[in-house]
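Question: Hello, beginner here. Any chance you could explain the protein record under this note? Any guidance would be welcome.
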Amino acid sequence: MLYQEEIMKNIKMTILLTFMLALFITLNADAKWWIFGQSAEEVTINYLYLNKMPFDESSTKITVYKDSLQNGMIVINGKVSVKKGKIGSVKVSIDNKESWTDAKFSDNGSFEYSFTPLQDKTYTIFIEIMDSAGKTNNIEATRKEVIVSGENIQPLIKGILDNMIDAYSNEDAVRFMSFVSSDFAGDEANLNTAIRKDFSIFDNIDLKYSINNIASGSKGIFVSLNYTRRVNATKTGQSFTDKGTTEFVFKLGDKGPKVFSMKNPLIFGLSDSPNVATGTLKTSGSMIVV
C-alpha cells in the first residue's frame, strides 16, 4: 500500500512538472531552444514545422510519404519574433532560391505556407523573414531538401503502433518491448520499468490515435500522431481522459522499424517520463492528472 501511494505521488509530480514545462514553452515565445537564431539576432524563428515535424530535429534531407500527407499538402508553419519594428514579409522558396512566394503571416509572428508536391520530385526549401528595417533571419539555417515518396509506409507504422497499444492495453510488457529498439534513447530498461508501473497504476487502458505525418531521414522515421486516452486509476477506480499530440522516432533494423525515442506528452511509460521521454512537444492538448 505504501509503495503504491509513493508511486502515485511520483506520478502526480511527474505530470505536474511536464505540464508546467509544456505551458512554459507555450507561453515563452522567445524560447531559444534550437538552431535558427540567438536572442541577439534581429529576426529570430521561435519554432518551425514541416507537416508538424520540427525543422531542427529532422535531417537536412528528408523523405515524406504521399499516403501520410494531409489533403496531399506539405504545410510549413512557424512563429518569428523581431527585435525592433514589425515583420515586413515572410517568403518561402521551394526551388533552391530560384523563386520566392509570400507566406501568410499575422502580427503576432505566426506564419504558414502550403503547397501540393509532385511525387518523386525534390524540393529545396528556404524561408526568409524580413522585418520593417530590412533585417532577416539566418536563411541558410532553414534549408531543407524534401522529396515525396509513393511508398506505402503508413500501414507498416500503423501496424507497429497498433500492436504496441494492444500489448500495452493488455499489460503484456514482454510483447510491448519487442517493438522497442535495444538502443532506445530513454534507455530500454527505464521504459520497461515505467510501463510495468503504468500497469500497476492504471486499469482499462483505452488508447486511440490518428497519424499526422510520417517522414524519414538520417535520424530515422519520424511519426507525429494525435491521441485520445481513457484510463481508470487502479486504487480508486476513477476514470481519467486526455488528448494531445505526440511524436515518435523509429529506427530501421533487421526486423523492421522499432521505437527509438518518444516525446512528452507520452502515451507509454508516463509513470517515469523524465527518464523515458526525449524532449517535450509544444502542445495545446490536455494531460492526465491523477
Q: What stands out?
A: The helical segments are 2-27, 154-169, 173-177, 188-201, 273-276. Residues 13-39, 283-290 have pLDDT under 50 and may be disordered. DSSP finds five helices and 14 strands in the chain.
